[in-house]
Amino acid sequence: MKKWQLVGSTTILGTALLLGACGGAADKSDTKSEDKGTDTAAKDIKGEVNGDGSTTVAPVVEKINEQFATEYPDVTVSIGTSGTGGGFEKFIAGETDFSNASRDIKDEEKKALEDKKIEYTEFKIASDGLTVAVNKDNDFVDYLTFDELKKIYSGEAKTWKDVRADFPAEEIKAFSPDQSHGTYDFFSEEVLDKGEITAEKNADTNVIVKSVQDNKAGIGFFGYNFYQENKDNLKAVKIQKEGKGEGVEATEETVKDGSYPLSRPLFIYAKNDSLKSNEAFNTFMKFTLENAKDASKESGYVPLEDKVYEEDLKKLEEVK
């Protein structure tokens, strides 16, 4: 029987990357199973869990789910990847138990859930540094300011020379996630003051990565994990926000301490009724919070402080 499944709107390439990140998890989970004494209890837990949402968060949750499946073989966890916005649509429609998100829930989404009388709990599982990258053969961009990024992604700058006088007069090939992604919303809010992004958009992050790789004048942005997976074929751009120096590089240290200007938390939003009534889901969420620190690091993201996971476990217990 298939213990878990990836249900998404991304391409086969994206799915392959997610699955590839999960190798070798079974050995670790066997050890944890012995340590926590969950073998006997696991045999009694059966059921289904349904989630959807961010493609940025998906690698972390899939990594956890690989481990979870070895300890709870009679629980089937489905994890869709229709983007943060698409995930919230399904969450609001009552189709899922949890929604992965690479941004905070919006006020209109909160209102829609309130209207449907759906109560939820927010959990943080990792930190991400939204990474801006150019083609690896680009020899003139080392850092960009927020104002320069705004010129590029608002469409004001048509050539690189329009961005900075000493850049070449080459046409910019800018790429972006589409509006279904929390990454689009986060970048729009932080860089463009919620303005519209005019770049070529795609629902599949892997297509954006490939587009930058294939265009010498290309630029794109995506989660830190996607950069880490493809860093041999991309050049990360340092980001300057305050108008001083030559920018800050996205690293585990700068994302963790928040000095990287495009750092952000990654979330799981869980439906309270499902946590109370679905033992399989409550068990999955507890397992997720207990293993998120290691899984986030193994997936190419930055773990949170231990106290954050401890506080989230307390929240979970309170809901139950």
UniProtKB/TrEMBL annotation:
Q: Which residues form the signal peptide?
A: 1-21
The organism's place on the tree of life at top rank: Bacteria
Disordered: region residues:
25-45
Q: Which residues form the PBP domain?
A: 44-289
Q: Which GO terms describe its cellular component?
A: plasma membrane
Membrane topology classification: Lipid-anchor
Kindly give the InterPro entries that the UniProt entry links to this protein.
PBP_domain (IPR024370), Phos-bd (IPR011862), Phosphate_ABC_transporter (IPR050811)
Q: Where are the transmembrane segments?
A: none
Main location (coarse class): membrane
Query: Alphabetically, which GO biological process terms does the record hold?
Result: phosphate ion transport
Enumerate the subcellular locations listed in this protein's record, separating them with semicolons.
Cell membrane
Pfam families with a match to the protein in the record: PBP_like_2 (PF12849)
Question: Which keywords appear in this protein's UniProt record, sorted alphabetically?
Answer: Cell membrane, Lipoprotein, Membrane, Palmitate, Phosphate transport, Signal, Transport
Q: Where is the composition biased (Basic and acidic residues)?
A: 27-45
Q: Which NCBIfam families match?
A: ptsS_2
Purpose? Involved in the system for phosphate transport across the cytoplasmic membrane.
Assembly and interaction partners: The complex is composed of two ATP-binding proteins (PstB), two transmembrane proteins (PstC and PstA) and a solute-binding protein (PstS).
Q: What is the name of the protein in this document?
A: Phosphate-binding protein
